[in-house]
Amino acid sequence: MKKRKWLMAAMVLLWFLLLTPWGLAAEEDVADAPAFVQVSIAYPQGETMEYRDLDLITARYQDDKTPIALSRYYDGYLWATVPADYAQRPIEGFIGQKQTFTDDTDDAFEFYLMEELTPSGVIQGDAQGRALPYATICRSEAVVMIMRMLGLPAAENSANGGYQDVPEDAWYASWVAAAQQWGIVAADDRFYPQRQVSREEFIVMLARGLWLAGMRNQPEETDIDELMQQLSLEDAAAISSWARPAYASLNSYILTFAMDMEESGQGDAYRQLYYAKPQQPALRYQAASLIWRCMEAFQVYPSQLAVEYGFDQAMPVIDGSTSTYPYTQAVYNQLFRSGDNHLDKPAAHSKSHASYERLIAGEVDMLFASVYPASDIVALAKEQGVELELIPIAYDAMIFFTNADNPAVGLTSQQIHNIYVNDAYDNWQQIGGPDALLYPYCRNNDSGSHAQMERHFLNGQEINERIRQETTSVSMANVLTDVMGAQTSQPLGYALGYSIYYYFYNMDMFYDTVDNLKLLAIDGVYPNEETIADGSYPLANYNYIVLRKDTPKDAPSRKMVEFMLSPAGQACVENAGFGPLNRP
After folding, report:
1. Which of 531, 540, 349, 374 has its CA nearest to residue 449?
2. Of 27, 56, 282, 578, which has the highest C-beta tally within 10 A?
3. pTM score > 0.85 for this model?
4. E-assigned strand segments in 187-243
5. What residues have CB less than 8 Å from 373, skipping those under 6 apart?
6. Which pLDDT value is given to residue 54?
7. Residue 317 gets which letter from DSSP?
8. Cis peptide bond upstream of 407, omega within 30
9. Which residues contact 392 (CB under 8 A, 6 or more apart)?
10. DSSP state of 283
11. Residue 136: phi, psi to the nearest 5?
């Protein structure tokens, strides 16, 4: 009797476990498991090789010597992206040998791209050893190329995926069946294996493979206007709606290598125009170039530094002001191979005010900030019960500038207050400059530059209403170009604007700020790296990492603080174009 009660209790417990969220969670974990994983081995041989030869290093499985197309040497390790089922198969490195095609008579670039894919077996010549770069490819050939890139095996048992027009004994049948199982091609009655594959069809298949491998994110929705803005393609509107997510998940740099180019312009002012021509058949070299570019760009592997700080497992969600986006770029490029294409890297910062709002709301983990939060942000944080923590990581400063032709050399803090709060002057002669009209430009109230004005000059007051209405610059870049364009000759007049020191110099490559504008001394001290670092310049400041005070000690954002204060992180500061606290 006791045995029967024990058995009944065990059965009840079993049913309870199966029907509770724990049992469901286990099933969800299996369903959410990644289809591909990254594996690596130490490869010290790479440290002794010439840089140009590193791309020849390829990974392969030890057991059957099958090359792994998605593999790269990086920072002392050989990395590979492999199907999760193969994660436990030991890998090794070898120096791949490129195949020379028999029809490559003039060493053309189209052959070069195809030869680059021969060591891994993605591209193979025909029976005569020809590449045939200008020949079209059919849908079955396209599928096989992509499956080889991914390292996915053909299906077993001569399956054909249920396609009525795919003979089970065809050489490509098991590849097509496997591609259908993995979602590379859609399930349907017919596959049309011998039909020429269009450019957009090939891009869709390729993008699905990259999504499957975890190398790109699949866009949920793709608006045609956003797509046209994102891609530098003159005929983006011609892309079929079902293909738009695939195009959106790549980038114009990748896509233009398989597109058509024309020159347009008058005289010497020519510009390149790119056309997708999505419904045209894809040529073999175009398909190869897309695969090769995707393999180059989207294999993102961590450096040893990233592993040391745990960033290979999780990166913090980063935001910040416009001027501090170079930090995010420098960090990702320092920590990862092809860091610009890391799936967690933000495409841009949300600007100073909005980024603080996102941090307070818990939408991001940290900010790279050039300024203290504005008064309304401080009030919002207090209202939400959030305490902000600012950790200096670099030097910077607020600066004032005018047109390069202006003989004026400086301003006092009181003059700046009088200009922007009281609108007290209309001529540079009134503040020690030439006899010329004064055109003061300000920034919008939700900008980081305005927060600097609040901190240094406004004393709880507002920028004069006339200035706000007539000469507000809506972005950091605009204030530079607005001041440049405001100079007048009849009557003579010069503009005045303000921004951040290192942003001013970082933008020189785009706007020639050094030639067109001049910085002004404040209270007799001219801004430069020395006066900012030693604090003698009165508007010297820091750049910060900003966290919520309650951020756990082991959080990735705390690790980022630790990294940014290390010699490697201070090198990132310098690479981003800012002033390191400690020269690396």
Report:
1. 374
2. 578
3. no
4. none
5. 356, 381, 388, 451, 546
6. 84
7. P
8. no
9. 542, 543, 544, 581
10. B
11. -75, 160
